[in-house]
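Could you join me in thinking about how sequence relates to backbone shape in a protein? Label the sequence line and the structure token line clearly, so we can match residues to local backbone shapes. Once you have written the record down, we can walk along the chain together.
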Amino acid sequence: MPGRTSRVFGGLLLAAVMAVCTAPGTAGASVATGTAGTIPSVGTDWGRTGPYEVSVDIEAVHTFYYPRTMGQSGERHPVIIWGNGTGAVPGVYSSLLRHWASQGFIVAAANTPTSNFAISMRAGIDVLEHRNADSSSAFHGKVDLEHIASAGHSQGGAAAINAAVDPRVDTAVPIQPGPLTDPDLMNEPVLYLAGQRDLTVWPALVKALYRDTDHAPAVYGEVRGAGHLDSIGDGGDFRAPTTAWLRFWLLGDENARGEFFGPGCGYCVDGHLWSGWDRNAEALRIPGPAA
């Protein structure tokens, strides 16, 4: 369990953020509809590169990873805002972020190595809103601003929760998140991921955040044998489950639903991947795929 001091400090940090931010979102457990029919299915091989070639734009505040042929079939692409671990930049996670873009997502990765406040992360949404409305932009009319996720690693994992106070964010994916956050300030569904052998962010710290999220759907997965740096690069064993989660909540992918929800969910019985797994009461209310 994180110490009371760190939780209080985290609350103070978020209070400072909230002074310049909007109120928590109330998206709850709403799921994307209508987008999955135009962005191609990948079956259930979540770790395999998706159908899109990827372009990368490195700018002053953000690095954007996105499908090279955005909107070629009239589709609009959901958004993932990304937060780095302490001292890191998006390039450290480039293969993972490219993977998500290959799946049809637009990733706005904040370039900051100190992402905890999530201010630069949330600014990525502002940039994409502007470009989506700009007829001279390559993003014009191609961004699905109704379906947005926040994700990040370590300090950026805490920032992923902090970013979800924004009502535009629909779900959060904190990977080995640090303690300077407060899940009570957000209402979106969350996939908490820990590493069994993480000596920087102990699994118990992540599980404490998960247990504090009793008001929104939350799933806890502890990746077997994973240390704190195993999620960098291509995401390692974190890559497939994060992709499945994002495809469900942002694309309404029914194949991905079956990995997390219902009595026979795929990840529930995957003892090879997980050394720990749990779903809270709100997550248990979400039905599995139709028979």
User: Anything to note?
Assistant: The first strand starts at residue 54 and ends at 58. The chain is about 30% helix and 20% strand.
